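Sanity check

After download, print the first record. It should look like this:
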Amino acid sequence: MLHELLLALNGYPGSIFREDADNLIKVVPDLPFIHESEEVQLNRLCKLATHYKKLQDFVKRYQGSPCNFTNQQNVEQLNVDTSGNLKDGLYLRALCAGLDEVLNPYRKTLLMLEQQILTDPNLTVGHVQQVLEPYQLLFPELSNVLEQITHLKAHGCYILELLHQFCICGQPIVKEALQKILYVCHCVMYRQVSTWLLHGILLDRHSEFFIHQTTGPVSEERKDDDDDDLGIGGVTGRQMKEVMQLTEDGKLPEKEHHSHYAIRTAMLPNYMPLRIAEKIVFVGESVQMFENKKQNTSKYIVHTDSVLGENEAKFASRLHQLQLEPIFSVQRFEDAVDEIRTCVSEHLWRLVVEEADLIGQLSTLKDYFLLGRGELFLAFIDQSQSLLNTPPMKHTEHDVNVGFQQAAHRVLIEDDATLSQFNLIIKTKFPFKGPTKKSEPKSQGKVSSETGWSCLGMTYNVHWPLHILFKLSGLEKYNTLFQFLLHVKRVQLELQQCWAMQMQCKHEEVSQSDGQKWLLRSHMAFLIDNLQYYMQVDVLETQFSQLVDKVRSTRDFEAVRFAHDQFITSLMAQCFLLMKPVNHCLTEILEVCHSFCMLLTQNSKLTNRDYAHMDKLAQAFNRQSSLLFKILSGVQSHQASRHLTQLLLRLDYNKFYSKAQGVLARPSPGSTP
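Expected structure tokens:
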């Protein structure tokens, strides 16, 4: 009977110990040679046998390597749960390997008991129970862990989180066993982290890692990869296809899709802070960029060395030493990542700031996106006024770029190399349509009110390696600033042209209506000129000077990138593009001023109808300027936005704006206030 008991404890029930319909191993009831008290004792041992069989079955089910897959689609099918099974992956196999290692002492104990029984046939069931008593505490907890993993369908690094949660307990034997399993699983994570940090390669065919590729071309199928044979600090098998290819001249193709990597929060263990994951993403992306550059061009010999240089072996050794530690230390792991990040960040700073002349490129962006070259855009506005005042056509984009080149020629900068990096674009919400035939009825649908000015934008051809700093989201913000600043500049120029008209007839007799007209223009120019001065001096120049100082005061690329992001955000905020009430109010003021200028320039002599229209424009201007004053005054009283207070100071430096309660222009006689 004791031999049958040992077989049952090893997961093989027989004639005395059988497995019922609920997969529970129990003693066959009512056997004449087993006393009731002994049956209770044996059934308690059978619970141990049931747990062991469950653990052993789990290991056998998931520890085996799947068949070799021939394409990525089969791998994806493997990761889809269609039969209630757990998704295959390295972490699941590591869990099985760790569990099997924890079960080895139990198997050795059974072997020892068998030898003792063969030596001494008088041993009792009580002796077996006494020897196996520690496992009565361990096996139920291990079974509970597997039940949670199966119930939650845990996959990848999420398994690390569950194991870490169960390690927090007051039972030493359970804690020690789970830490051994967690150690084996952490080995997989260290291998993935090492290949990513040191080589910029993301080996994650089962989508288990807490970093994933968000966009980019489909990587070439890696038939020779063997995930089970990942080396510490190295990679076996063929590498992923380069995902950040560059043209031979070092420029990024306009239509190329580049890889971007992000944190997969569902896979990030809760004991690992998000800041560590962000540092890992940054380092891997940077290393990958240099590796791809080295493999895709032979012209840039200066960049053929590894970004980590001679430190690569040291970093690999440190990560290997951390992996050998039995208990994972978040602090020591972060220290190692910080050391690698510092090395990479300093290398990037030297490449981007010194070799790529970042400050010069920032000045170039300021010259074009932020209208730093005012003479160029004054010439462009004058050159393209008639072209962009009408709805855009298919040829408008080509014509506007020709006009931009002609404007550059007029101000003698057509030979400037930076000019070729920028291109004007027309983005419309409505599709281009050809002219309709006279016999066709007019469309009853929505008619586009867009003009070329409202659709005008600018693109910037980013050179390697500045693309890691000037990303698409940042360039879109630059483009938004360009559109707003150009709108203000254009309206300011139109008001100045109206002033030139006034000067031409200054010796003529002026009627009361003409006096109201020129007074309204003066008030509009006062507001727009102060707005323009505020944005150019108080915002653009001040923020740009602060950005340049920050770039020069550090050797950390991450600090530079943060300073640049902060620079763009500050510009957006201080130009009121993020504050809808103020932005809407300023937009309405600009539109009213533009309509007023169009009224004056398109009519040499105003009629009574034109004067009535001008009165409505004056009322609209008064309404919006008064609203702007109330918003600025309200913000000032609560001391919430310093830059809005600065704008109010520009507009109300002599308290005229305050005394008028924001109503700058008075209506003409006889008009409705």
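If your output differs, re-run the checksum step. Summary of this record's structure: Strands lie at 17-19, 25-27, 211-215, 260-263, 422-426, 456-460.
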